[in-house]
Amino acid sequence: MTTPTFYIDMKITEEGNAQKGSNPREVMVVLGPAYGKELNKTIVKVDHASVLREILSGIEEQGAVPRVIRSLRTADLAFMAHGAAQLSGSGISIGLQSRGTVVIHQRDLDPLSNLELFPQSPVITLEMYRQIGQNAAKYALGESPNPVLVVNDAMTRPKYQAIAALLYLKECQSLVPNQKPIELKVEFSITE
Amino acid sequence: MKKLIAGVDIGNSSTEVAIAQIEDNHAVFLSQHLVKTTGIKGTIDNVKGIRFALQEAAKKAGISLKDIETIRLNDAVPVIGDLAMDLISETIITESSMIGHNPDTPGGAGMGIGITVIIDQLTAIENKEQEYIVVIPKEFDYEWAAHRINKAEQDGIIITGAIVQKDDGVLIHNRLTKEIPIVDEVSLIEKVPLGKLAAIEVALPGYVIRTLSNPYGLSTVFNLDPDQTKQIALVAKALVGNRSAVVIRTPQGEVVERKIEAGRVILKGTNKQQLEVSINDGAESIMSTYEKLGVLQDVRGETGTNVGGMFNGLRYDLAQLTGQAAEEIMISDFLAVDAVIPTSISGAMAGELSMESGVALASMVKTDKVPVQRVASLLEEEIGVAVEIGGIEADMAIRGALTTPGTRKPLVILDMGGGSTDAALMSESSKITSIHLAGAGDMVTMLINSELALDNKELAEKIKKNPLGKVLSLFHMQLEDGTILFSKTPFPPHTFGKVLIREENDLTPLPNKLSMEKVRDIRRSAKRRVFVTNSLRALKRVVPTGNLKHLSFVVMLGGSALDFEIPQMITEELGRFGIVAGFANIRGTEGPRNAVATGLILSSVGKEVVQ
Fold first, then answer.
1. CATH number of the domain that B251 lies in?
2. What is the DSSP secondary-structure string of B546-574?
């Protein structure tokens, strides 16, 4: 048995201002201003394409419908996700920054409150991104899933804090003041 | 002449005290208190708890401890109990031949039959007459796998189903040009034999599989003769109730339900009478054998078997508790109860569980006289009040129980505690017969803990003591009986959508997979199996004629009489014999608590209570 080698390419097309969704099975994924554009790897050098694909796969596997937008007026995770939750048909959203930090949000919560927050981006694995997508879908479908288990590494802070700050600054350079979120069409192609 | 007397009752799990003022042969009760027993009943560790309880009671009565003239201590019954539980059957799959499990999200629906083939060998297939089932280990991405299957389909290879290791069922299904059933989350996929005939079935959401869980369905699929059908029937049994399943036929493959050599129980009675019963016969036949024997002197388990191990373990525990040698321990009573124990099937490929049968045992030994005297002298030394040891516990309990309004002699008390169920009969001439039986509240906790696979004794204890509810929305909760409770305050967020235990001031959510009906059924059946069985057993022993119809008043006491459903179950059961049964209301105010402590005070004056 040989493991096939293949590459995943992500193609993101911008499709104008995002409208409020009406599908109750919809989970909104909101990307940071630079995600997959000016930046293309997370803080631990994982390809943005793989991360987003795992989240979308998780949502789809549970039977919900993923939709992707990009936030341009803010790069703050909580406000990105809270804004996206208002546009989401189910009221559930996932916020994803370029460095890999994720949150699951719900439209009736306060911006700084949330359903599940994964603040230590260096320790999030691809399997966890998949589970985060699955959990968000479960919330959207009205289930109450067990939160995704998070590992805690006390050394991530001293090791990555400076890099995280730099990545956030870099992400902020892509901000467009007063620009509403943009609807995105994300396509993956696989080549052997 | 006025004097103050305190009664102290040391129980297996709680210590109760009562303080009364005695005036011309009348007792006026001032206060009472209850604490958890410190240490094992009858040991000097108890003193700490007693002192604390006395201080609290004295504070409530507004007196000083020094004012108390005498403290009366109960002569604790020298019996100690212990619990054990083990399997008597086990399902083993040799030559792995089935997968039956409930992944949250399998793909597609329907039934497919074909030869198992690994995904990267698909293109190398030459024989296009055959139908195939694809095996997809976790190294293969879903996009790639779906692409491969679609391509093979175009090349004229017929694919009827897929077995997937990761949780990719829906993802693959959404990318296929032709619908096939897909079973995913098969964790041990490397055990799936390749090149063998397999059948796969996935039911629609909310339905269960029908063909593979039917022995004749399996025989149709695999062209089996009657003998082979008989052999494979166990596979069908193991798959009942699943939403998806795979059965793979390997020439040697078989599923066996192995009866573990559980062994025989040897019951020894008086006059060297001895009866044997196999534990595989189940709890009912063990208990009826015990009934035939009448008086029990000791029980042994056949050495080298499960039951031998269980009884030896009990003997060893009890020897440690009492400080006697293990050989000297004589088991004076035991209760066997059938139990269902979820066990993982050995040889299974997706971590399947099977509900295996087992037996739970509670046993009890008579020990040397419990050294209450030592407790009494230490207590006297510590608080400087004279301590005397009162009469027999059962005697005191009956005196206490008789303060319940509406009772009279002859009276039977049923004392249901944590470790033992005790019964005592007081005849019209005030003669007392008493009996101590193994099995009570702690056994119920053990059964709940294991049958719900909680692995958490505290949670099981909470389930035992409280009713359930399910939070439907911010303000609505569905109760066990189906009624909806509207709350004035919103429920806390961590309880949303969950089944929870309704404690007095707190709501404890249960793990997600447990449904309210299942937890309730197991809770009630565990209580019934232990308490209803034991109360009948106890009453039969204390009634001189052995006929329950000759009883008229039964009063329930002890911690388990406080339970929200046990007394009703027993009242209902005993009602069939025309017995008035209910839980006590000691002194008309205390409910089923404080009987012994009250009895201890009353016995010192020999007169009735004055409120």
1. 3.50.30.70
2. S-GGG--EEEEESGGGGSSSHHHHHHHHH
The pairing of strands B26-36 and B609-610 is parallel
Nearest CA in chain B to A50: B141
Q: Which domain, by its residues, includes B308? A: 82-88+260-366
**Separation CA B487–CA B479 (nearest Å):** 12
Q: What's the mean pLDDT in A77-100?
A: 95
Q: Do A61 and B139 touch (CB under 8 A)?
A: no
CB contact under 8 A, A61 and B141: no
Predicted pLDDT of residue B251: 62
Q: Does B436 reside within a domain? A: no
CB contact under 8 A, A146 and B512: yes
Number of domains in chain B: 3
- The structure tokens listed for A13 are 């097309």
Domain boundaries, chain A: 13-185
B343 and B384 belong to one structural domain: no
A82 vs B550, residue with greater confidence: A82
Smallest CA–CA separation between A111 and chain B, in Å? 17
Q: Scanning every residue of chain A, which has its alpha carbon at the shortest distance from the alpha carbon of B166?
A: A127
Flag whether pLDDT at A107 surpasses 90. Answer: yes
Scan for tokens 């539980």, then name that residue.
Answer: B85
B373's enclosing H/E stretch is helix B372-383
User: Strand, coil or helix: what is B265?
Assistant: strand
CATH topology of domain A13-185: Rossmann fold (3.40.50)
Contact flag A134-B167 (C-beta cutoff 8 Å): yes
Q: Tell me: the pLDDT tens digits for B324-350?
A: 777 777 888 888 888 888 777 666 666
Question: pLDDT under 50 in chain B at which residues?
Answer: 95-96, 607-611
Supply angle C-alpha B587, B589, B595, rounded to 5.
Answer: 50
